[in-house]
Write a structure and sequence with these properties.
By secondary structure, the protein is an alpha/beta fold. Among the domains are: 93 residues, Udp-n-acetylmuramoylalanyl-d-glutamate--2,6- Diaminopimelate Ligase, Chain: A, domain 1; 49 residues, no CATH class. It has 5 helices and 39 strands. Strand 22 and strand 23 form a beta hairpin.
């Protein structure tokens, strides 16, 4: 199995790596990190929720990463690595395992790569076969450029950043340090800019800006980030962007924002810091979203958000027959609104009549009407 360590590691060493408290036998060794269901006697696993107790009792894992509050829910003889944030500890251990089961290749420019004479490639960088590094491009210390990846003229990749195979980084676009871009991503294609012609047709507007991506950014497979029309499209430090996301020209995304798969952000939108955007959501152009807002899956944001809160805007699923009836009602809403307004006006008129002054005969106008 590819995710196995060639040499097993002791729980004592893992506890040291994580800074976790070890309760159990420090000499026990493991070869892999696994889910509770798939773990065997050479695996370490983790649990973060009380609902996982039953799965933990049925698991064959030799050790568990667990929070202090769940320690008493596990067998007394279980080997435990106790950490107040078990999910974070799992993430750190996964990174530690990954660095050992997927070591980086030796530094250098592989045969079959094409590096322009005017490009600058650090001696510690890895350039895989088929990669193309354009004129004036810069590849930083320890960067890793995957097979068939293209860096356009003047593009730059920061230290320790990895671009997987078949990534395109357009002319003059840049990625900072310690970032990761997955296969098929296109950074710096033209933004969708066209001026309508009188009488029909379109005039293409050359996109003269670039894309600037900060440090510690991860961009998923086949995501597209378009270059700006005049100003740059900017992705600030720490952003995490999933697969198949479309980010249009001139967008600015604040630090540590996370965007799930298939979301689309239209041109010139400004997204704040630490925003979370659910999958398949749509963001209108030329609006802004404030810091710390959360947008639920498949939500359409059509106007600016100024208050950090949880925003949703989609019908939950239902049986098709019920959906068809609901859709029919939705189509009638404009007419129903007009009818409701007329009814409100009639009620207001009736109340006005009730409040009228008494007549000469001692009654009210309303009394006369009833009589």
């Amino acid at each position: 199995m590819k995710r196995n360590l060639q040499t097993p590691v002791s729980l004592a060493e893992i506890a040291q790596v994580l800074g976790a408290e070890l309760r159990g036998d420090p000499s026990v060794t493991v070869r892999r990190l696994a889910s509770l269901r798939k773990a065997d006697t050479e695996s370490i696993s983790f649990l973060v929720r009380p609902q996982q107790r039953e799965a933990a009792h049925a698991s064959h894992a030799v050790a568990y990463i667990v929070s202090p509050r769940l320690v008493d829910d596990l067998p007394a003889d279980a080997n435990l690595l106790i950490d107040p944030d078990p999910y974070g500890a799992y993430a750190r251990l996964a990174q530690w395992f990954d660095a050992r089961v997927n070591p980086r290749p030796s530094a250098g420019i592989a045969e079959g790569a094409h590096v322009h004479p005017d490009a600058r490639v650090a001696a510690s960088a890895v350039i895989e076969p088929g990669a193309v590094i354009g004129a004036g491009a810069v590849v930083g210390e320890g960067a890793w450029i995957g097979a068939n990846t293209v860096l356009g003229a003047g593009a730059s990749v920061g230290a320790r950043t990895r671009l997987h195979a078949n990534v395109t980084l357009g002319d003059d676009c840049s990625v900072g340090e310690d970032s990761l871009i997955h296969s098929g991503a296109v950074i710096g294609a033209d933004g969708f800019g066209f001026a309508p012609k009188k009488g029909g047709g379109w005039t293409k507007i050359p996109q003269l800006g670039a894309v600037v991506i900060g440090n510690r950014v991860e961009i998923g497979a086949c995501t597209c980030i378009d270059r700006g029309a005049l100003d740059d499209t900017v992705i600030e430090d720490g952003c995490k962007i999933d697969n198949l996301v479309q980010i249009a020209h001139n967008v600015r995304i604040g630090a540590d924002t996370a965007i799930a798969a298939c979301a689309g952000i239209a041109g010139s939108a400004v997204i704040g810091k630490r925003v979370q955007i659910g999958g398949a959501s749509g963001i209108f152009g030329h609006i802004s979203i404030c810091d710390d807002a959360v947008v639920s899956t498949m939500t359409l944001i059509s106007k600016s958000i100024t208050k950090p809160a949880f925003y949703s805007g989609i019908f939950p699923s239902m049986e098709n027959a019920d959906w068809e009836r609901a859709a029919a009602v939705v189509r009638q809403l404009p007419d129903m609104r007009r009818r409701l307004r007329r009814l409100e006006q009639q009620v207001q008129t009736a109340h006005a009549g009730t409040d009228a002054p008494a007549t000469a005969e001692g009654g009210t106008r309303n009394d006369d009407a009833v009589q």
